[in-house]
Amino acid sequence: MLRLDADAAAPVPAIERASARVDRAIGRKPRIVIIGGGFGGLNAAIELRKAPVEVALVDRRNHHLFQPLLYQVATAGLSPAQIATPIRRILSGQKNATVYMETVQSIDPRARTVTTCTRTLSYDVLVLATGARHAYFGHDGWEAFAPGLKTIGDATALRARILTAFEKAEVGDRGAERQRLMTFVVVGGGPTGVEMAGAIAELARKALASDFRNIDIAETRIVLVEAGDRVLPSFPAGLSQAAQAQLQALGVIVRLGDAVAAMDEEGVTLHSGERIQAATKVWAAGVMASPAADWIGAAADRAGRVMVSADLSIPGHPEIFAIGDTANVRGPDGRPVPGVAPAAKQMGRDVARRIIAGLRGRRVPPFAYRDDGNLATIGRKAAVADFGRIRLSGTFAWLAWSFAHLWFLIGFRNRIVVFLDWAWAYATFDRSARLIVERPEQPQ
Amino acid sequence: MLRLDADAAAPVPAIERASARVDRAIGRKPRIVIIGGGFGGLNAAIELRKAPVEVALVDRRNHHLFQPLLYQVATAGLSPAQIATPIRRILSGQKNATVYMETVQSIDPRARTVTTCTRTLSYDVLVLATGARHAYFGHDGWEAFAPGLKTIGDATALRARILTAFEKAEVGDRGAERQRLMTFVVVGGGPTGVEMAGAIAELARKALASDFRNIDIAETRIVLVEAGDRVLPSFPAGLSQAAQAQLQALGVIVRLGDAVAAMDEEGVTLHSGERIQAATKVWAAGVMASPAADWIGAAADRAGRVMVSADLSIPGHPEIFAIGDTANVRGPDGRPVPGVAPAAKQMGRDVARRIIAGLRGRRVPPFAYRDDGNLATIGRKAAVADFGRIRLSGTFAWLAWSFAHLWFLIGFRNRIVVFLDWAWAYATFDRSARLIVERPEQPQ
């Protein structure tokens, strides 16, 4: 494992070297290839909008996704298009940027090329911003039973599972099978797990409450399983307790200090020996970085994240940066930078500024994460917010969460439409997107 | 083939008999089973809301779909949830109605039972409202190349195909393959075909115009193939010409008097011998009724529609009704009732009123279709409208179309959201739902 403290103390003039190479390429602008159109990659591209460079952004999907609200798609509160925008729409007016919807096959760091299915792109500077997928810690077979939540496809598939479970319970007979269909296990007590558990509880107890005739929606059981001794371990202990109390007020059963030992179609077995019969399981227990480290043969941590220097470049490759969930980053204080959207955005902008500074022969201090606060929502008027000295829970935290998420939703139009959807849901308890789509969506 | 004129002259007192049987079932309310939650079935259920009956509505999907706007989902203008509402949400407050999301396996007209995967429902009155699917007239293999447009899944799959074609053209090289990727063939010049051709043209020339760097969107070719001698054959000839002129103004190439002779992954060959290389093909050339006639062993026409009497019941089975696209219906004037949403709605309400009248021992005159006008849209400020004496084309027809479709969209909330989306699209030429979803949506 690499030690980063030494790098942090004496930052390598990474970009100066990269740009020196660039300057030799007389007669053309430096080519910046960014892989990944998430928060990190997209913000890097946008920050380069006035720079004298050519930007190529490669993503295998056509849309940027506002992942913090993905759980609302999975629980029928929002439609996919409300939190996803075509990357080329966002960069439409940025003349120095080209978007390629392509899957990266390989990277040759010596030739400085990225190869996709159809072409080889050469780069002067490469930005790896490929994000993370859920990890099952050696139990990959569990994915079929307990899908995770990272893409629009994940969310609509999970939405179909959750809604179909209630539909099957309605047509089935009273008894154990009905109870199994109406039991939901969420694995992992981090922000995604807490949000999913709260949102399923609200979906069942409010939006669906009066729509069924045979089942009693009050019999819905939602179990949140967390291996640690509290939910939201990245928050102060007091807010963890507040979050747990708010979950329990919604009827969520919280199992702490226990973990999944076995899983099958019928349910889960915990380490404590408890067996929970549950038709629907949701995985929110861990993520693994994309294989960016393998592509370039770089050192990675156990979660697959590329080890980077204090300037976010890869040791030995000052022209390659890794940002967001792809990178293992420590601040100047040695603390790890969390895998959250604001950190990815800040890294994207930081790398872009480094590239611009390098072109001008200037130095930039090491990357430092600015923590503007931590928010997690549980449900209607239920959330926790940690702004350092100011810690909120309940209605005020929920208002702060709502405004923050609306504000950062890309696209003015989406802000308005999501606001109206939330206002409607708040006034009526209704959910706008309760669709079970039956036919596979086939990419061509 | 049955002749219906005799029936029309002397309507059988169908419901009186059905209700007489019902009255003997002392101590319980008559059971009305409705199969299908489209315009016909749903309106039948709603019209029965105050009747002393038990309504069971069976549909294999969980949502009612506003099919007239489905082409806007396929062309990224609207999100699925904006035109689809859970059936149990719509019937939530109707205490005499139960919704079953189930697939019908068989019907036993003698035992008067409907069997699904999980249960057998007995009925006193059965309403078949199962709609239609696209038909390929003996060329079922063409479905893989040229999908039709009947469900949300159809629409999102088609949307992915259309958007992916442009993405592939952008990353590919100039030449024949790029032209093939940017060519779209719509088969069938009825309302759906005209709407699809116009909407693809607007999507390409307006919404996508400034988002690509390598391809020239103006090279997009959209070909509408119609076997007859004019588009919109169900409209007056003058409006067909107006529609064709509006299509051509949008750049759509209209091929009349020609039909598809062969089709493969690469393109289509017409009867005239013309070969069109086209990556994306859309089928809008014909529909086939669902197999409701087979279920009950009833006589059907060539399109699979059940032959019904003037009271919409099936000859020999006064307790079974068929409505909407499932039924071959002629009005008292002998003219066939068209397969459009208003006709299905009217039949649904008519059957419900017949059932109620039958319970009270009253007779009801034969079903008569009230034609409130015919509308088809081509694009922005481009449409045709036939209100009998008043015929419109262009901006006024488009306004009439917009108001009519908004008005009939089920759900006040959807009306507002769709209106805002249209207003946004009108002001900005943008499309809100340009998503390519990569992962199959798996029903559980």
From TrEMBL, chains A, B:
Class of this enzyme: oxidoreductase
FAD/NAD(P)-binding domain sequence ranges: 31-348
SUPFAM superfamilies tied to this protein: FAD/NAD(P)-binding domain (SSF51905)
EC number: 1.6.5.9
Keyword Transmembrane helix: no
Keywords of this entry: FAD, Flavoprotein, NAD, Oxidoreductase, Transit peptide
Catalytic activity: a quinone + NADH + H(+) = a quinol + NAD(+)
Signal peptide bounds: none
GO molecular function, one term: oxidoreductase activity
Boundaries of every External alternative NADH-ubiquinone oxidoreductase-like C-terminal domain copy: 373-423
Similarity section: Belongs to the NADH dehydrogenase family.
Name listed for the protein in its UniProt record: NADH:ubiquinone reductase (non-electrogenic)
